[in-house]
Amino acid sequence: MSITKVTQHPTQNEALIFERSQTGRVGYRLPQLDVEETPADDLMPAEFRRTDDLEGVPEVSEVDVIRHFTRMSTWNFSIDLGMYPLGSCTMKYNSRLNEKVARIAGFLNHHPLAPEDESQGGLELMYRLQEDLAEITGLPGVTLQPAAGAHGEMTGVMIIRAVLDKREGEASKQRRVMLVPDSAHGTNPASAKLAGFTVKTIRSTPDGFTDMDHLYELCGEGGIAGLMLTNPSTVGIFEKNIREICDAIHDAGGLVYMDGANMNALVGVARPGDMGVDVIHLNLHKTFSTPHGGGGPGCGPCCCTVELEPFLPTPKVVRENGGYRLEYDRPDSIGRVKAFFGNFGMMVRALAYIQTHGDTGLREATEAAVLNARYIAHYLEKDFEKPFEADTMHEVILSHKKQARKGVHTLDIGKRLIDYGFHPMTVYFPLIVDGAMLIEPTESVGRQELDAFVDAMKSIAKETVEDPDLVINAPHTTRIGRLDEATAARKPVLRWSPDMESTAKSA
Amino acid sequence: MSNIPDNLKYSKDHEWLNVEGDTATLGITDYAQEALGDVVYVELPNEGENFNAHDAFGSVESVKAVSEIFTPVAGEVIETNEDLNDTPEVVNDDPYGDGWMVKIKMDNSGEADALLSAEEYAEFLESEEE
Amino acid sequence: MRYIPNSKEEQSEMLGAIGLASADELFRSIPEDVLLARKLEVTRPLAENEVITSMETFAAKNEAAVKTSFLGGGVYSHFSPTVVDHLIQRSEFFTSYTPYQPEVTQGTLQYIFEFQTLVCQLTGMEVANASMYDGSTAMAEAFLMAHRVTRRDKVLVAETVHPEYLEVAETYTQHGEMQLETIGFDHETGCVATEGLAKIDKDTAALVIQSPNFFGCVERLNDLADMAHEAGALLIVVVTEAVSFGMLKSPGECGADIVVAEGQSFGVPMSFGGPHVGMFACRQKYVRQMPGRLAGVAYDKDGNRGFVLTLATREQHIRRDKATSNICTNQGLIALAATIYMETMGRRGLQEVAYHNAQKAAYAAKRIAELDGFSIAFSAPFFNEFVVTAPSPAKDILRRLSSEKDILGGIALSGYYKGRENDFLVCVTETNTREQIDKLVAALG
After folding, report:
1. Which residues does C370 contact at the CB level (< 8 Å), separation at least 6?
2. How many CB atoms lie under 10 A from the CB of residue A131?
3. Does the CB of B41 have a partner CB in chain C at under 8 Å?
4. Cα separations (Å) of A116 from A103, A111, A112, A318, C361?
5. Closest residue of B to C309, CA-based?
6. Does residue A430 have a cis peptide bond before it, meaning omega lies within 30 degrees of 0?
7. In which element (H, E) is residue A180 found?
8. Closest listed residue to residue C143, CA positions, set C251, C233, C244
9. Three-state secondary structure call for residue C325
């Protein structure tokens, strides 16, 4: 008897819901309508009503829905399944306790426009989180309004713009240059542009630090509005000249914005406010463990110095006479960046994270995160090129330099990791390292799993020499192989339609 | 080694020009298409638009990169290759033929003389490689 | 710390293995003068039950959360089927990252594709993205997009767009070339004032209309689309109450070029204002000017169908300061919740729940209008929200309703519009029973 692969396996072939739909199926029941019905035309004149009867919207039962999403879920890798070493993303454990407390009815069922004196719990929680983030960053002015990291960046650079406009009036027009290192996230220049700045790129030195000579040269050219700096940088090393960098920018009349993407290397160990940074954004979905959710929701608070506090978005939670209220009268504010007060549900989770760790635990987490990255760096630096000498903080950067000679590139190594049960590392970022592999284990990985990861990487390095095609054609264990992204982009099919398959295949 | 036809002129931004009278047909070189990878979209100007030499007149996109295309000569766009809307991949398959991008009526046809010859472009590529 | 797998002993061994004597040595590369030489001044570590108690104490102080509510204004109380919250709590969904590696994120990519399709179906548009932070930021991004598409600078916004949305758009556009101008409303109908529409001209990038608008009034989108298009401008339609899609003619059918919506009504808790989810849809011809992520169909070499993030060259990680937006990701898990809601309710349920909302609101409006001194402020048709004009200041009435009857009767308009001291916005959804409505009417009377 021979065993053949069953290609019709239902959990591997879950169709789109639209393909599953059967006329007449229902997955809901509403209570009986308990008011006298108004005739349809009096309720809503016909000219305003839909006439398409929502054709195409699926009709499915509750069981269909459960199976549909459960099956699809099994096609995802997740933190709960194993190590997710995406550099710069801080894929740490998302506590179930945080999920539980965020779902307390008094939070979930609370309307943002309810009277302030009946919303004291929500406001107090936000205030407490503001206080804790101020202490952690050493920057006392805090807004929780931004919805994500890039949103926090935009808020931060707009604050810089507002400060300069207020300080210099018309002359501020001469100050429109935002310096951004060549190693920065793409969101940095994109955010700077929204604040009306033009971007000048600062080079990195061959050993991975900001090029001080180039910095001074650019500052000398004048017009400096500020600097957007990630620290530890995107190559995972601490900017040893951080004080000098901040001084240079301040001397040039600019302000320093720090991208807080890598705060998981610093919490409880060093504070941006003590380094000379003026404003920072935090990613609660990285450092403070609110779930990434497959791409959101995030939460990107901004913390700033006392001098910049008046420019924070409106409204702001303040304490007054033992109670809490929303302050709207903020004449210097950059304005509102989001309806209501931000992603409150994420704030609940972040505060629960801080409470659970406490003063000692926050530092322990940082130590464990850095130790884990250092451990990986130590055991992999012989098999893979490690482009920078400096001590690794919470993430380590390697490159494909040795493997590329065999025709195996970063992407291949990442895809092959899937076959070993790990999510790929961040690939091809930052751009300053050719074939970059950015590995961030976080504190949520134990020694055995780190060892398994190291072994997997060493094994892939060996395969590169012995059987490069094995790596180049990876992954071999997933439901689908590598997808043809070029054809997908040439003839994009972005929604289901009954003839979708033929359209996509004709491309 | 990439293909560099002898009869064309080249720019250091990796565009080629085929000059006939005061009209120049323009595209990207074999080297450029190879470096970009699978081309998925070509953004071209409207006919009638005018450009100065070294202006960006459009862009070429691969899956994960986008590059601006510059005209090395000043002039008016008199024709664009509309086939690229549906089949951008011909830029990869036939960069010097069906993958052409625009035809420009040059303000000064002498401008093209200053561009690189095939031999010079080949040398330039070699120096870039180093 | 119970979230850190390694014991103290294991950590010591690991330190030893890499040649370090103590954890402090991990931070040798940080200059001493920026090291924090003390403990952080935050709480001591709390036990699990202590955290729960702490959080329950906060929640208990949200007194409004347990009251009978008729609050709307951009955030709505709707019933969410049990399956929604159950499914979004699956590890594979909520502890995964943005789907950059399609082989191990097909679950996420496929539901994003379904979300995009459903948003297209409801809005009547040709293409929709993977979601935005919320309705307000989606609207601001739509302004920037209209500017890119038309290369015009002026955006005309109806005053009846959600006031907080307008504030967000002002923040987003304050440093570019764009100017925002508002158009007033007709005090009889509650809809956009026709005389204001004369401001549409050859510099206008877009006309922006919310429907149902902040007063709950349904706008004549067909006519507005024609007026915008005649001047070469786009029509941007904003929807804050997504349940209305189940009854009202779609903005796409009415001629909209870009539709942005808040999706909170689709199974997402109010949660004191967030996280919610923004929907963003437009005409196919503008797809390359869209902000945000897009999932599309792709095949592997064996012909298996899958999904990938596509058209990424619009985005910040490639185009940097020339990107269509600085947005990095979407609102993944909340978009999932909305997707599950839309599919569970389905073709019939989305229409039925819309019908219930409209019927209950009509009943409430009729009963309130019968009260002495009370009237419905505007004549235009409304969906599930309407403005009541009271015989005395609305703020006082609402405060009394809350303190004496535990009813949140609505939102006073005086905070948003001048000369509307006696007006308040009432929202009635399928979650409000007739008994609650009758209680509200009795308390007002």
Report:
1. none
2. 15
3. yes
4. 21, 11, 9, 12, 26
5. B63
6. yes
7. strand A177-181
8. C233
9. coil
Whether A490 and B63 lie within 8 Å, measured CB to CB? no
CATH of C63-80+348-444, one of 3.40.630.30, 2.30.29.30, 3.40.720.10, 3.90.1150.10: 3.90.1150.10
Q: Are A421 and A434 in contact (CB under 8 A)?
A: no
Predicted pLDDT at C394: 98
Characterize A308-340 residue by residue with b for buried, 16 or more Cβ atoms within 10 angstroms of its Cβ, and e for exposed: bbbbbbbbbbeeeeeebbeeeebeebbbbbbbb
Beta-carbon contacts below 8 Å between B and C: 16
Give the CATH fold of the A121-311+340-355 domain. Answer: Aspartate Aminotransferase; domain 2 (3.40.640)
The CA-based angle A186-A188-A193, given to 5 degrees, is 105
Residue C228 contacts residue C206 (beta carbons within 8 Å): yes
Residue C313 with chain B: CB contacts under 8 Å: 40-41, 61-66
Distance from CA of C312 to the nearest CA of B (A): 7
Query: Does B124 contact C at CB distance below 8 Å?
Result: no
* Distance, first Cα to last Cα, chain C: 58
Contacts of residue A145, defined as CB under 8 A and 6 or more positions apart, other chains included, come to: A155, A301, A313, A336, A337, A338, A341, A342
pLDDT mean across residues, chain B: 91
Name residues of chain A where pLDDT drops below 50: none
- The pLDDT value recorded for residue C320 is 79
- How far is A76 from C93, CA to CA, in rounded Å? 7
B64 touches chain C (CB under 8 A): yes
What pLDDT sits at residue B128?
Answer: 78
Tokens encoding C5 = 């797998």
* Residue the block writes with tokens 């990285």: A286
Q: C130: which residues sit within 8 A by CB, 6+ positions away?
A: A295, C112, C115, C116, C292, C293, C294, C295, C309, C330, C332, C335
What pLDDT was estimated at residue C312? Answer: 87
Do you know the residue count of chain A?
507
Distance of alpha carbon C369 from the chain centroid: 31
Spatial separation of the C-alpha atoms in residues B57 and B46, rounded to whole Å: 9
Whether pLDDT at B110 is above 90: no
Sequence spans of domains, chain C:
63-80+348-444, 82-340
Q: What would the two tokens of residue A53 be?
A: 């009867």
Partner-chain contact C271 A196, CB within 8 Å: no
Contact C68, C428 (CB under 8 A): no
Crossing angle (nearest 10°) for helices A344-380 and C48-60? 150
Three-state SS annotation for C267-322: CCCCHHHCCCCEEEEECHHHHHHCCCCCEEEEEECCCCEEEEECCHHHCHHHHHHH
DSSP codes of every residue in A22-61: -TT-----PPPP-SPPPPHHHHS-GGGB--STTTTS----
Cis omega (within 30 of 0) for bond into C381: no
CATH of C82-340, one of 3.40.50.1010, 3.10.180.10, 3.40.640.10, 3.30.360.10: 3.40.640.10
Domains of chain A by residue range: 10-73, 121-311+340-355
Distances in whole angstroms, Cα of residue A107 to Cα of each of A99, A122, C63: 12, 7, 10
Ramachandran region of residue A311, left (φ > 0), alpha (ψ -120 to 50) or beta? alpha
Of B41, B63, B89, the CB nearest to A485: B63
Q: Are A229 and A209 in contact (CB under 8 A)?
A: no
Beta strands in B22-84 (DSSP E): 23-28, 39-43, 50-51, 56-62, 66-70, 75-80
User: Residue B64 contacts by C-beta under 8 Å, 6 or more apart in sequence?
Assistant: C312, C313, C318
Question: For position B130, what pLDDT does the model report?
Answer: 59
**Domain annotation for chain B: domains and CATH numbers:** 9-108 (2.40.50.100)
Q: For chain C, list residues with pLDDT below 50.
A: none
Q: What contacts C241, CB < 8 A, 6 or more positions away?
A: C72, C76, C212, C262, C265, C383, C384, C385
Tell me what the mean pLDDT of segment B59-65 comes to: 86
